[in-house]
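Hey everyone, long-time lurker, first post.

I ran two proteins through the pipeline my lab uses and got sequence/structure pairs for each. Pasting them in order. The first:
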Amino acid sequence: MVVGLQTGPIFFKIGTGSFLHCFFSTISYNLENSKGGSKFPYLMNDLYRKELTPENIEKAEIELNIIHTALKSFPPNKVIWDIEDLSQRPPWGNNIADRIQIFLIIFIPV
C-alpha cells in the first residue's frame, strides 16, 4: 500500500507505510532520543500523527532542514526500520556500500 501527503485535492505519493515509518523512526531514535516530537514537534506530532496546518508549514520546513543536515552525517547502519521493534532490519539488511549515506529530500508544497 502506498502512503503520501495530501494538500487539498492533490495527493503526493511518499512510498510504503513501512518506509514512511522507518523515516520517522530514524528521526525519533537518532535525533530525539526515542522521544518522538520532543525536538521536532511540527514534523513528528503534527505531520506524522495528525495534520500539519498551513500556519505551521514554515516551522516544519525549518525542522526538515535541521533533520536533513543532521542525518547527512549518519551512516546507513543507523537507519531504524521500526522504533517499536529495534530487532527489525531494513529489506536491504547490512548489504550497504560504504559510499552510501542517509539522505533526505522532502518537498512541502505551499
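...and the second, right after it:
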Amino acid sequence: MPVDYAIDDNTHNHPDTVSVSLNKQTTKALLEEIHQAYNTQINDVLLTALVQAFAKWTGEAKLRVDIRNDGRKTVFQDIKLSRTVGLLVVIFR
C-alpha cells in the first residue's frame, strides 16, 4: 500500500480522523434499498465501496479482506447457541 511518510518517521503520534455523516434518506437507501436492488446483503455493498475506494487510492484492482463472524447464526429457532461454550469463528475470504 502507498504510504504518506518514510518508514522511519513516527506517524503513530499524529493520527488523522476522517468523519462522514449520512442523512436519514441516504442511510435508509443504503440499509434497505441498494442491496435489495442487486439481491445482495448490506455487507456486499460496503465491501464493494471499500474495494473501489482502495482501487482509486492505490491503482490496485484487487484487495484481500478477511471477515470474521462469530459463527452463532440462528439456524434453528428451537436451538439457543448463546450458552454454547467455545469459540465458533467463521472467516470469509
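Reply from user beta_strand_b:
Welcome! Quick read of the second one: Residues 29 and 92 are 26 Å apart (CA to CA). The radius of gyration is 19 Å.
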